[in-house]
Amino acid sequence: MIPILFGISLLIFFLFALMPGDYFSSNRRLSPQRLEELRALYGMNKPLIVRYFIWLKNVFHGDFGFSLQHMQPVTTLINQYIWNSFIVALATLFFTWTIALVIGIYSATKQYSIFDRLVTLGVFASLSVPSFFIGLLLIKLFGVDLHILPIGGMIDTGSTTTGLAYVLEVLRHMILPITVLTFLSVGSLTRYFRTGMLEVLRMDFIRTARAKGLKERTVIFRHALRNAILPAITLLAFELPGLFSGAIITEQIFSWPGIGRIQLDALSARDYPVLMTLTMLLAFLTILGNFLADVLYAAADPRIRLTKKEGG
Amino acid sequence: MKKKTIGLMALMLSTVVVLSTSCTSNGTGSASSSSAASSSAADSTQAVKLTDSKVELIKATDPGKSPDTANKRTDTFVATIHEPGGVFLPYFYDNGWDGNAVQPIFSSLVTVDDNGNPIPDLAEKWEISPDNLTYTYYLRPNLKFSDGSPLTAEDVAFTLTLLNDPAYAAGNVDFSNIVIKGTDEYKNGNATSISGIKVIDPTTIQITTEKLNPLSLTTLGGSVISKAYYGNGYQKGKLDYLRDLYAKPMGDGPYQLDQYINGQEIRYNANPNYYGGKPSIEHLIFKVTSTSTALQSFQTGQTDLDSFSTDQDTLEQLKALGFANIRIRTIPDFGIIYVNNKKPYLKDTAARQALYYGLDRQKIIDVKYNGYGEVANVFAAPTLWSYTEEGVTKYNYDPDKAKQLLEGLGWKAGSDGILQKDGQKLKLSYLTTKPDDPIIPIAKESYKAIGVDFVPEVLDANTMFDRLNKGDYDLLSVRTNGLIDPNDPVYEFSSTDPNVNPSGYSNPTVTQLIKEGISTSDKTKRQTIYTKLYQELSKDPPVILIDYRKSISAWNDRIIGGENYTTGASDVAIQLAKLKIR
């Protein structure tokens, strides 16, 4: 894991640093003289390799740098926004998985029924509708016409609520963004579960189970389901970085103060310390997710434990 | 290169491509939204002539329709902001939105009105020496900071010293084109103070500079930082201690910071010690809204004032609200296409004129602004006092003339219709940051008609400006910053430094006129000079001027004085203090 992270850091650092232009190059108000002074003050005039090692050394000391754009330590900056994205992503994850699991499995057991066809239609709608469209549509419907949900932000304008009232207020503001995000991601997952279930249902051991005279419920939930959701563990592990990466467009539409916008801004402004830290964080989470998937797999699937024992 | 990098990052930023980032991030960004490119035919819309009417006001028809949400806020005015960063100290933020956020907290010595005329703020008057190098400011008597401590010339001196500290590393004030006398000795030598800053008495300060610059008056006379509050612990070369105070501003403006809720809203309370008296509205909120829902937020009363995308649909919707006062105003900037004068095939005046004649600019403006823009012909925004079309050559679309001019330069059409000379085809690269730039399809078509192969490239801003400064381009699309002085947009053409003058243009008459333009502060004299300059620049065009544009903003009729307030304008503090709630 550690060597991979090193490799990634090297790659990202050089890719970012080698992009033509830097943080100051788009500021046309500055004179060439002042530009030189500024680049020197931020150490941008040093050779690339030296800059990398300075960065690396600082990271080992727990110093992830100072954001040029936000004029505050990167860790403080990220800490301010990442949790806003996290709560939305976590709720979305919960709803997406619950809904997809239920619908996917139900429609697989009733393949080609009316319900199944409707689900397929819904799945394609979910896959093809752009987020800004559905977002604005819901805002128009619930925020402007019906007047029951807020248009954006995390709290009401000038709100001074605390405690439970504050939590409820934030929850109310979360409804629309979560709905949009859930709607957008539920399609592919439903499809995934449905296919997985269909495949398992055609397996020999299901036929055997039915032949034994087991109840259909037992066949589906005890035998088929457990095998069908096994591959989903990998999928779940891959959701880990997604919890912290923010949803750029949705956050933008709902003025949700999340990390997605910070990341996008950092990219377009060449705010290297922020970019480096965020990318490294996501890389780390991806690797960690992979690792967790392996562990979980071993726990869930006896076949893997077995091969490991034999091998080692 | 950039494309590849994005591709690599696609995993984490899978949606990045769809968004075209708007808004500037450097300098005090004006909040005026860039107009959405709309393609509907401009049949019903009659173009409002920008140069005739600078501001158009549409009164609210039915103020009673104002939503309850807004009416309930009897002591709060809600304006909007887009991406504040939280550095609430003038000169030390780097995000233009923070610049907007500090405006209510910090007044300036001198500020400018919409037309670029200086107006008194903390300083009641000022004097400029005949050589335009020495500036004397006379502060109002009994000025106070919001904590009640006195504001004196010492604070002004402290502010200017901070900004010329060797460790001052923010990018939004630049003194290298002003240079206060003694800066070098302070920055690089042992001097303990800057000799050009002289405190004459508690209300008078004199500053001697070394370079002529018409912006010196407002740059030197900017916001004032309290020496007692911010100067505690100041040592030359060490400014890091200020970071602890970024979030805790203490200023002299009409409002003081109450609370900043990260990424959501900035709350202010009226400052009882403001020199103009405590503002009538007790609370001010700058709320973060997204451009896509600005109208909805305004409609439901979440906000009292905002700017909106410039198109007929939005305007009709705003009118239908009834409670909205609408202002359509010209933005003090213009769009240009840089032409690389250093390239052998573009160095002749006739070549640049041909590119002018060969481009259907009216069509670009129709598509881009749908009646809320105008073809630019003068190197100044219509709002600037120096703007005049007198004797200026207007390059109306004329492909035949363009062809003739190019033929005159020895270009001949090849078998594919593209012009050739000495075996070389006339192929021009065009750099832009917007994938939906309407110039791309229109210029491609109009230039093809005159035999020019137009090759567009869409890049991110930093890459594009890097290539601009390196001279690695033929044509490049850009907007000027918000213009304050007539010298702002023309200054670069007098320089021989490729970093300052990336077009590589050189014309001795123009250089001379630009120098004369800043050598006097007499406006009548300057007007004569700039009139001549605009004529010269149109005869021998350095770059291609494209457009002037308008913005639409609206405010709830319950706010009195909203017509004078523009988020991000220089005089925000003064106008804010005058607002009232009906």
Automatic annotation (TrEMBL), chain A:
InterPro entries cross-referenced by the UniProt entry: BPD_transp_1_N (IPR045621), MetI-like (IPR000515), MetI-like_sf (IPR035906)
Q: Which UniProt keywords apply?
A: Cell membrane, Membrane, Transmembrane, Transmembrane helix, Transport
Domain ABC transmembrane type-1: start-end pairs: 82-293
Question: What does the record list as coiled-coil region(s)?
Answer: none
Question: Any one cellular component term from GO for this entry?
Answer: plasma membrane
Q: How does it sit in the membrane?
A: Multi-pass membrane protein
According to its UniProt entry, the protein's GO biological process terms are: transmembrane transport
List the PROSITE patterns: ABC_TM1
Q: What is its main location?
A: membrane
Claim: Cell membrane is one of the keywords in the record: yes
Q: Where in the cell is it found?
A: Cell membrane
Transmembrane intervals: 81-106, 118-139, 174-193, 228-254, 274-299
* Record-stated family: Belongs to the binding-protein-dependent transport system permease family.
**Name recorded for this polypeptide:** Oligopeptide ABC transporter permease
This chain's source organism reads Ruminiclostridium cellobioparum subsp. termitidis CT1112
Automatic annotation (TrEMBL), chain B:
Per the UniProt entry, the signal peptide is 1-20
In this chain the Solute-binding protein family domain maps to 118-496
Q: Which InterPro entries match?
A: Peptide/Ni-bd, SBP_5, SBP_5_dom
Q: What PROSITE patterns has UniProt attached to this entry? A: PROKAR_LIPOPROTEIN
**GO MF annotation terms:** peptide transmembrane transporter activity
**Gene Ontology biological process terms, A to Z:** peptide transport
Keywords assigned by UniProt, alphabetized: Signal
State if Electron transport is listed as a keyword: no
Pfam families according to UniProt: SBP_bac_5
Organism domain of life: Bacteria
Q: Any one cellular component term from GO for this entry?
A: periplasmic space
The protein in question is named ABC-type dipeptide transport system, periplasmic component
Which organism is the protein's source?
Ruminiclostridium cellobioparum subsp. termitidis CT1112
